[in-house]
Design a protein that fits this description.
17 strands, 4 helices, about 40% strand, mainly beta, about 15% helix, twelve-stranded antiparallel sheet, about 300 residues, three-stranded antiparallel sheet
């Protein structure tokens, strides 16, 4: 996800998207995943020369990536989209607010209750045996950079080191997530429920378990028919309710939790067995998937 937090920050992106040709290029890549320059030029009815400047501008602002692939007697350049979402958030934060950030390794959960299919892996090797829930308690799980399960939950304790005498005004969590299908299946919906301190704050339906291409950061040794990448989701619990990628998903506000410097923050990702879509959950860390991050937390606070 690309997050734009000010007009100046998004200026070059807005200029780039102000072209019908470049919008048409994005539409083609949405429909076809990867295309070479000849295919794009033919699809748009323009010459390769006319296409080059548009491709360069899309690459400069980070909307597409270009890779080389052997074909025939040489290499061809393949274009693919680099972002699945663009979030424009111009909300002005409270002047008195301060922010504390934390990054939590995927394997550093504080509680769990999961059901097969399931497993964990570090960047180098599977931890224990797949589909054996006992290994979610294995000491090696602290090195895990990816985990998956069919139903159940994992819960993370978010570090709270805000100064004494302060209250929490917003909590933001972001993580790369997907479903967990047998093998991979891009059309495998799963209802993922988010909770804070045992209070459900909202739900998101993951569309699938993605394996059409290898994740940008997924290790080369990783099995090709296993989870490759997810979607970066951002959950914000603020004073106006709870939001997912900028869209409100519940009326639960941060003030209902009455959180200060002494409060524990227990955030849970769950697939409930009574959900409409019990399609599992995969959580990707910094060495798997398309985003070089672990579970990320941001706490905004101000004077109590």
């Amino acid at each position: 996800m690309l997050i734009i937090s000010s007009p100046d920050e998004g200026l070059e992106l807005f200029k780039t998207l102000g072209s019908e040709v470049r919008i048409d290029i994005i539409k083609l890549l949405l429909a076809n995943k990867k295309m070479n320059l000849n295919e794009i030029a033919t699809g748009l009815g323009i010459t390769n020369g006319a296409l080059t400047s548009h491709i360069k501008k899309l690459e400069t602002v980070g909307l597409i990536t270009i890779s080389s692939e052997a074909a025939g007697h040489g290499n061809q350049k393949l274009c693919s989209l680099n972002r699945d979402k663009i979030l424009i958030d111009f909300e002005t934060p409270e002047k008195t607010a301060n922010v504390m950030n934390a990054s939590i390794k995927v394997g550093h959960y504080s509680d769990y209750d999961v059901f097969p299919t399931c497993g964990l892996s570090s960047a180098d090797a599977i931890i224990g045996e797949v589909d054996d829930t006992r290994y979610f308690s294995h000491p090696g799980r602290y090195n895990a950079d990816i985990l998956w399960f069919t139903k159940g939950y994992v819960e993370y304790e978010i570090p709270n080191f805000i100064p004494a005498g302060q209250k929490i005004t917003q909590l933001m969590i972001s993580a790369e997530l997907s479903s967990e299908a047998p093998g991979v299946n891009s059309a495998w919906p799963s209802d993922v429920t988010f909770s804070l301190n045992d209070r459900e704050i909202g739900m998101w339906t993951s569309p699938g378990d993605f394996g059409d291409v290898r994740g940008i950061f997924t290790p080369e040794w990783w099995y090709p028919n296993w989870n490759q990448y997810g979607l970066l989701k951002m959950i914000v619990i603020g004073r106006d309710g709870t939001f997912l990628d900028g869209r409100q998903i519940s009326d639960v506000s941060i003030d209902e939790f009455d959180l200060d410097h002494s409060s524990k923050l227990r955030f849970r990702f769950a697939v409930k067995d009574d959900s409409e879509h019990v399609g599992g959950l995969t959580i990707f860390g910094s060495t798997f998937g398309n985003y070089a991050q672990d579970v990320s937390a941001s706490i905004s606070y101000t004077d109590a």
